[in-house]
Specification:
By secondary structure, the protein is an alpha/beta fold. The protein contains eight helices and twelve strands.
């Protein structure tokens, strides 16, 4: 059975442990973080399926954490947990990229329903993401490249890298931006890793000579097709 990988940021130890254990009995994989800084580090190490963030936390609050996450990932669902009830707070949460807002105290059943609804909505949005890359059909949800009757499987990172190239085809894809989005930071070693993935994608797209990934020196990559 597919398990949902969830990152929970909650600075109240008792509440955090209760939520973590309750979700784990329902086949969730939960990473519990006591503050926003730790949560952001964990997020970059292993991108989860969904984030559940307390708003009031030490070191980095939930709203600030959400802003940092949205700077590198604009797709992952985010639910805020908060004791705040002012409309302005709710508006702020949605305006910075939150997808849902659950006020304390809350029931586990309600939290689980909201989590599953967000994930189902995200999955539905991605079902139609079959993109044309020259004479290839790129099925992003299934991470497959189709050429005539041949099907080539892509790794998770290859698929996400190609998706970003296709969405920006014939335009330069900023190297630093995509490194931060997919690798977590743009250091030298991650840059070399991305070069390797670009080489792999070029090989998998070689059947159509009109498809080309070019290196724009000093800026990034451009998909031509």
């Amino acid at each position: 059975m597919f398990k949902i990988n969830l990152l929970l940021a909650e600075d109240e130890p008792a509440l955090g442990q209760i939520v973590k254990e309750s979700l784990e009995t329902r086949d969730f994989i939960v990473t519990l973080c006591p503050d926003g800084e730790i949560a952001f580090k964990k997020f970059k190490q292993d991108t989860p399926d969904i984030l559940v963030l307390d708003v009031m936390m030490p070191k980095m609050d939930g709203f600030t954490l959400a802003k940092e996450v949205r700077a590198v990932n604009d797709e992952i669902p985010i639910i805020f947990l908060t004791a705040k009830s002012q409309p302005a707070d709710v508006v702020e949460g949605f305006s910075i990229g939150g997808n849902d807002y659950l006020k304390k105290p809350f029931s586990m059943e309600e939290l689980i329903v909201r989590i599953k609804n967000l994930l189902n909505r995200s999955a539905q949005q991605k079902k139609s993401e079959v993109l044309k890359v020259g004479n290839y059909s790129f099925d992003f949800p299934r991470q497959e490249l189709h050429y005539n009757n041949d099907v080539t499987r892509l790794t998770h990172r290859e698929a996400h890298l190609l998706f970003n190239l296709v969405k920006n085809k014939n335009q330069v894809l900023d190297r630093s931006l995509i490194l931060k989005k997919l690798w977590g930071n743009d250091d030298f070693f991650n840059a070399r890793s991305m070069d390797v993935f670009i080489t792999k994608l070029r090989k998998k797209l070689k059947e159509d000579p009109k498809v080309e990934i070019v290196n724009v020196r000093g800026y990034g990559y451009k998909l031509l097709c």
